[in-house]
Amino acid sequence: MENNNVQTLSNEVDIRKEKINAIEAQGQVVYKDKFDRTHTIKEARELAEGTKVKIAGRIVFRRVMGKFGFMQIRDLESKIQVSVGRNELDEQAYDFYKKMIDIADFVGVEGELYTTQTGEVTVKAYNVVLLSKAIRPLPEKFHGLTDLEAKYRQRYLDLVSNEETRQVFIGRSKLLGFIRKYLTDNGFLEVETPILQTAVCGASARPFYTHHNALDKDCNLRIAPETYLKQCVAGGFDRVFEVAKCFRNEGMDTQHLQEFSLLEWYVAYWDFEDNVKFFKGFIQNLLLELTGKTTIEKDGVVLDFGKEEYDRINYVEKMREILGFDFLAYTDPQELKEKVVETGLFGMAEMEDYKSISQIVDFIYKKKIRENIVQPTILYNYPAVLMPLARRNDADKRIIDAFQIVVMGTELCKAYSELVDPIEQRKAFEEQLEAKSQGDDETMDLDESFMLAMEHGMPPISGLGCGLDRLMMLIFGQASVRDVVLFPLMK
């Protein structure tokens, strides 16, 4: 069967190439340089009957019945039926349409709007212009791509054939537009920070490395824009944000890709509770913009983002409750593992891959707390060991003033009151180096340029990071991060 399909496709390609040769032999241009549209297809569909239009799009359906036929053309936002008949086109033009034009070709249509007896808005074509000929046909029967790998590798075909896919990526464009408008309306400035960096900082992650030939210097791709954005705040930019492409050289699954989009913002003189309030307003307005409501239905559960107060979980207290002991008292990873094994919650083998205190604590949290959260929930009071760039709590330096909003076991955002004390920050970086020596390869470097900026003085700051790909998955009900990224990297 596969060989037959390959042979059929090969024959189809040959036939279409022959048509191209025949058209060129007639002295015509197959691939036009432009077409002057009067309306998009969506605009044309809203006009009154009898209106003259010039529209363009790709042919997605075509049926010729002797001297009359229909085709359907579409652009990104809509599609429309076009009637093509011998009564409107002269013999030569109709013969060209019938013999030389195929499904998947791009055409320009000049005609008049009318409604068929079945109520279908249709353009009666007075002229059909071949704008660009497709050598290969669209997916068989135009039922769309069902093979996932093909969907991701040939996203352009997925966009042509699947309405759901089109709506997801139109939604992604609207998301980016909303972010910029909402934040700028609230006094934020958009900035750009380096992707190519000289210190692994801003998050706990394994980086990609490269070499800068001109400087003969090893560099890494950005894992987060945090340290540069905070330097902007130090320079007087009180409210800044960036939609940043970031790169983390880690495992791939339905919620993680090595290249992803991260929204981060920072505000001078805020604490993390200010960010809690602001993010709730942000997510509620975003949902209204994209979906018209503040609830999302996922796996049969209605998730309510519009409620006035979200549930709250004190991270440290919940972990103490689960473990039955004060895990913050432990500084040796092996001792902590042994104590956890005594509780019977996990075996030693389950924790073998986790080398540092932060990795062990994060593993327990993900298994015993995060997985069980359904409705939007604010987790706060995190262990300081998890976030080296966050401000230590005034009452207990082992705890940081941080929060995350978790829904359906997924972290939507991470935010905290920023650490702006250079002495404490250096100690936190040194602890990261200690964790690295214990085998944790997701720790941060000691970024001396960032330390220099902090030593020159920073105001109180609160910042927030939100993974846009994961947010898109939730809003549009997609099962994999690849379904919300136009061109995900494949093997």
Overview of the molecule:
The chain is of the alpha+beta class. The protein is built from 14 helices and 18 strands. It has helices at 2-25, 41-45, 91-100, 148-153, 155-161, 163-185, 226-234, 272-291, 315-323, 333-343, 357-368, 422-437, 448-455, 468-476; strands at residues 52-65, 68-74, 79-85, 106-115, 121-132, 189-190, 196-197, 209-212, 217-221, 239-247, 259-268, 295-298, 301-304, 311-314, 377-383, 399-407, 410-417, 461-467. The strands form four sheets. It has an eight-stranded mixed beta sheet, with helices on both faces. A five-stranded mixed beta barrel has the order 1-2-3-5-4. Strand 12 and strand 13 (301-304) form a beta hairpin. Helix 6 (163-185) crosses helix 8. The model has no long low-confidence stretch (mean pLDDT 92).
Summarize the topology.
Elements: H1 2-25, H2 41-45, E1 52-65, E2 68-74, E3 79-85, H3 91-100, E4 106-115, E5 121-132, H4 148-153, H5 155-161, H6 163-185, E6 189-190, E7 196-197, E8 209-212, E9 217-221, H7 226-234, E10 239-247, E11 259-268, H8 272-291, E12 295-298, E13 301-304, E14 311-314, H9 315-323, H10 333-343, H11 357-368, E15 377-383, E16 399-407, E17 410-417, H12 422-437, H13 448-455, E18 461-467, H14 468-476
Parallel strand pairs: 3-5, 6-10, 14-15
Antiparallel strand pairs: 1-2, 1-4, 2-3, 4-5, 7-9, 8-9, 10-11, 11-18, 12-13, 15-16, 16-17, 17-18
Helix pairs in contact: 6-8
